[in-house]
Amino acid sequence: MDPTTQHQAIVKQVIQRYAQFKPSHGDIRLDTVFDDQQSRYALMQVGWDRGRRIRGNLIYITLDSGKVLVEYDGMEQGITQDLIAAGIASEQIVLAFLTDPQPVAQTS
């Protein structure tokens, strides 16, 4: 399996796991948005909480030039360690939301 196809599969698998969680309050659903053609992957939240509309990204990841770019990570623990545990090398993950994006440092 080529690296892009492998990265796509892993990113989708990890996001799908997050999509199984039920928000602790409100009537909110979690929707996965996967675009393999453009290598764009997102987890969206949509619904209502305490009379207010809730909508927006929880996770947004793009793939480019063999790298996994974490464009937005709204998860409490962060998604990078889950991506690494699933088989993506830390040096292939870039925290693109930082002012000076850097590959993720290896943690033990």
Automatic annotation (TrEMBL):
InterPro entries linked: XisI, XisI-like_sf
Pfam family membership, one: XisI
Superkingdom of origin organism: Bacteria
Gene3D superfamilies found in the cross-reference section: XisI-like
Cross-referenced CDD domains: XisI-like
Protein name: XisI protein
